[in-house]
Specification:
By secondary structure, the protein is an alpha+beta fold. The strands form three sheets. It has a six-stranded mixed β-sheet. A six-stranded mixed β-sheet has the order 7-9-10-11-13-12. 17% of the residues lie in helices and 26% in strands. The protein has one domain: Deoxyribonuclease I, Chain A (4-Layer Sandwich).
C-alpha cells in the first residue's frame, strides 16, 4: 500500500465490526446488501429537509474503493460494478460523481446502462522525484487506470480538469468538471489531497471549486479527505464560507455543518454542494466500499429530465 494512502485510510482490520441492522431509505431502491453492517452514528440528527419525492432528480457521489493496492483487495470488483449500476440506474439519476474508479469498470457499467449515458474520466498520476509521471493502474490490466470520473445520463459538454495545486511528488488527484447538456447544470467530481500532505493544498483546491460553481447551476462534490468545518476542527480555516452560504451541502441542517458519517472510520469526508433547491439527502447502505454513497435530490423542475 502506498505511503500516502496509509496517512488517510485506516486499515480495514483496525475498524471494529458493529452488529445491527441499518434503517435506510435507499435499501429498498438499490437492493444493496452490506457485507458487514456498521452503526449509523447520527441517525437521530434533526432534518430540515422535506421528505424526498420519488420523482426528484438524483445526484450521487461515491468513492468506490476500486484500487486494489489501496487497501481494497478484499472487495470484489464485480460486486462493486454491480453496486455502481444500481446507483446509476435508479429512477431519475442524472449524474454519479466517482472517485477511485477503474476506467474498465466505468466503461463496463456505462455500456450496460446504454447509449444515453456518457462518461468522462481522468487518471490519478504518480510523480516521481525525477519528475517522471505515470498513471496509477488497477492491478488487473483489463480494469485499466484508476482515477476520478463523471457518469451522466446526459451528453457531457465543456469538460475540463480544474487547475488545482497538487503535491510535487506522490499521487496527484484532482477535480473534473463538465456541463450536463440536457439540464444545463455544471457538475464536478473532486478527489482532494489526503490529510497528512500539505493542508494548504486542500484549501486552495476548495477555493478553485467555489470559483467555478458559485453563481451557476451546479452540483459539485466528491471525496474531500476532510471533516466538516466546526469548533472541533483545527482545519476549519481551509473551508471557504461560500460553500455553506452561497451553496448548500446535501446533508447541511440549519447552522450545523456536521452531517452523517460517510467513511467507515466514522467521519464525514464525502460531500455534495449545490445551488439548486434541495428536496432530500440520503446515504446508501454500507456495501463494497469503505465509503457510503451520498445522494442529493432536487426537484425535477430544477433539473429537467433529458
Amino acid at each position: 500500500m502506498p505511503w500516502e494512502t496509509r496517512l488517510f485510510r485506516k486499515r480495514r482490520a483496525l475498524v471494529p465490526a458493529v452488529a445491527g441492522a441499518l434503517v435506510c431509505v435507499l435499501g429498498a431502491v438499490y437492493g444493496v446488501h452490506a457485507s458487514g453492517q456498521r452503526q449509523d452514528r447520527s441517525a437521530d440528527l434533526p432534518s430540515e429537509l422535506p421528505s424526498a419525492a420519488a420523482h426528484d432528480a438524483r445526484f450521487v457521489t461515491w468513492n468506490m474503493c476500486g484500487v486494489p493496492q489501496w487497501d481494497c483487495k478484499d472487495m470484489a470488483g464485480t460486486a462493486r460494478t454491480e453496486e455502481l449500476w444500481k446507483l446509476a440506474s435508479a429512477a431519475n439519476t442524472r449524474a454519479v460523481l466517482l472517485q477511485e474508479v477503474c476506467s474498465g469498470d466505468l466503461s463496463q457499467v456505462a455500456g450496460r446502462l446504454g447509449a444515453t449515458w456518457h462518461t468522462s474520466f481522468r487518471p490519478y498520476v504518480t510523480v516521481a522525484k525525477t519528475g517522471d509521471r505515470s498513471p496509477v493502474l488497477c492491478e488487473n490490466p483489463d480494469r485499466g487506470s484508476a482515477g476520478f470520473a463523471i457518469l451522466a445520463h446526459s451528453e457531457l459538454t465543456k469538460v475540463f480538469l480544474l487547475p488545482t495545486p497538487q503535491p510535487k511528488e506522490g499521487v496527484q488527484r484532482g477535480v473534473l468538471c463538465a456541463s450536463l447538456a440536457a439540464e444545463d447544470i455544471r457538475v464536478c467530481s473532486a478527489h482532494l489531497t489526503p490529510k497528512g500532505d500539505d493542508r494548504e493544498l486542500r484549501g486552495d483546491q476548495l477555493r478553485e471549486m467555489v470559483r467555478v460553481s458559485v453563481g451557476k447551476r451546479a452540483v459539485v462534490g466528491g471525496d474531500f479527505n476532510a471533516v466538516p468545518p466546526g469548533q472541533d476542527n483545527p482545519n476549519t480555516w481551509m473551508w471557504p464560507s461560500e460553500l455553506y452560504s452561497k451553496l448548500r451541502e446535501c446533508d447541511q441542517r440549519g447552522s450545523s455543518r456536521a452531517g452523517r458519517p460517510t467513511h467507515e472510520d466514522g467521519d464525514k469526508i464525502d460531500y455534495l454542494f449545490t445551488s439548486l433547491t434541495r428536496s432530500g439527502c440520503e446515504l446508501a447502505p454500507w456495501g463494497v466500499s469503505d465509503h457510503r454513497a451520498l445522494v442529493l435530490r432536487v426537484p425535477l423542475g430544477d433539473a429537467p429530465s433529458s
